[in-house]
Structure prediction request, 747 residues.
Amino acid sequence: MGENKEDKYAIAQMANAKVLLSGSIMELSGKKILVGDLIDAINGNVIISHRIEGEEIYSMVDELTAYIHEDLGITSSEDDEIALDCGEKTSNSIDAYDRYLEGLEFFNNLDYEKANVQFQEAIEIDSTFFNAHYYSAISQWWLDDSETNKEASDYCKRLLDNEIFKDEMQKLKVEGAYNLIKGDHSSAQPIYEKLVEMDADDKMSWYALGETYYHRDKEGDEEKEKYYGKADAAFKKALKLDPEFSTAKVHIVHMLFMAEQYIDIIDDENKYLKNNKPNSRSYRNLICAYEAMGDSINANKLIKESKLNLNDKEMCELYTYTAHFIGNPNPFNENLENMTNYHQRKSVQYLQDALTVCDEEAIHPPNTANQFAIDVIVVIYSLRAYGIEHTEEVYEEVINTLQYNLKDKMTLTRRIGHYMLNNDWLQPYGDIDRDIALIIDYFEKSLSYAKELNDNDKIVSNISLILEAYDKINKQEYAMEYFYKEITELCGTENYFPCLKGGDALGSLAGGFYELNNYDEATKIYQYRADQANLISLDEAEREKAIAHLPEIHYRLGLMHLKTQKYYLARQNFISAANTIKDHKEIIEKVSKNNWVKTDMLNFRIGECYDRENNFVNAINYYREAYLLEKNSTDKIEILSMQALSEYFNNQIDSSKIHFAEVEKYYRNETINYNRGTHYTYIDFPLYKYYHAKGNIKKAQQYLTDAYMHIPENERTGYLQDDARSKHLHKYYYIHEIIETYNQSIR
Prediction:
């Protein structure tokens, strides 16, 4: 041991220990030598010393342990966890243990992807290494932001089935993890309560117990406060056992932010920084807490300090996180409760600072499927904070500072409009007509850049987005007039097929017509593109590209048939999409890296078709398959809700009751983002139908009201103000039945 002897004895005396165990390992002439000394903690005298020589370190540790037990008069039964040999409790392979320790380092730094790689490498060396398996399961669970993770829970199930555990405690740990990861907190809670009784020093069990308290079913504010308190205590116990256990610390700080206890956050983080190295997470929490209180002086001091201690990547994350925390208007994100114009303007400043340190991938990524580009968000946040005039200066500053060429300007401008079109919470005015006019202005500016570039694909892409924008304000006829004017300018005629055959222009246009709810034009294009995959005149590259787009084409065709009540045709298209994915998986992965049409979606839609035809047996089977494949927890509940309703109408009463109970449990305890998706159609409304059919009118009305209120207000208003809605009900497929049922119920 390399520590100072006086420190060592002082610590032992503070712990009221009478005896101290000191040890060392050395290698001499190819042999390992392990020395263990029992020392009197009061006077520092060696009571007894043992020297073990050998080749296998774990067996040497076991031999030394046996001597120490004998010296101290410790006896143990085979039922005691301590009875396991050292190699049995960890691994008999030093290489596997080294990988495991590397994994733990990544794990404690919240890098779960790299942690899991190391744990899996340890398992490849020693397939019976329980701790590596256990932490691998936890790492897989935390790879995304979902509360549940099917892959991780399945992994735990395999550990149980294959009995990859060596004692009762290890078995309980994996049983607890299995229930926790799949979201069964009521089953996980007693397991972890037992585990912390068996081993009060196991940080992971304390942390997991906190998770069960935090997410368990809670009725009323009093019970919520009680279990949030228990969760907080469990997380703090885990952190006390290991001050470097970052995950527990993150959860504690998260709860403090939720409670707006900013002074407590500041006190805790300052104490932590006093005793630990500077780190980006502590700076971030401190700055967010100060900014939440409007204390720019202390926030700016910390920014200056963080610049001295953090690298550019860390500063980029700090700036962007703070900007989104204090300025993100998304009501379903974790953000500031009482946002003011001060916070909105400071968020713009933080994003402008981010532009000075972030890399190009973060500022202007080639693909924004999984992230918001900083150059776009700074302009949109500025619109809300300052208005259009000042934002023009911000827009020009971004372009000039980053030295954007014409193509970059086109992409930036198009994305500004696209982000606002797809996320109404980013729209600055809260007035649909003004917001859409602003969005179209950005698309038309991007269109002008595309024309300068003579890029047909991008010209048509911008035209398609403008069509979609006009649909939002029910200007479908004007949209088509606009389209024919622009397409005639581009192609010289209204017949656009010969002009747009090459590239991706037809695909963009089909999407525009689909969003405009012009299913006649959209169907013509999608069917044309589907037929292309069967042409024998195509070369190999063209054929592969055509095949790679078939899942999306068939899915779109299927949706249009579904929404126009052509259930047989819809089902055939969904089945064709599924078969294409099955038969041409390699081609699709090679050509279309962003293919978003998945088998679980298709199974759900096939089930929906059967459901609409009252073929509940087939509907249940397809819903069940979709549920097994779906990974997102809220989408799983959607599927389960539809399955449960089909079961009820198929007279499978018990099964329906069990599944609806699970749906209601999730409904009560989880935050469902109704701003994205149509959860009101597939969760709320089936619950209404279920209780209405059972005759529970009070509960049915509650869920019907919820379904109605969860429809975005602009969509409800658009439907009610559309006097011709009966002629195109397919446009309102997800909402018209809810609205009509609700209106009848309140008459």
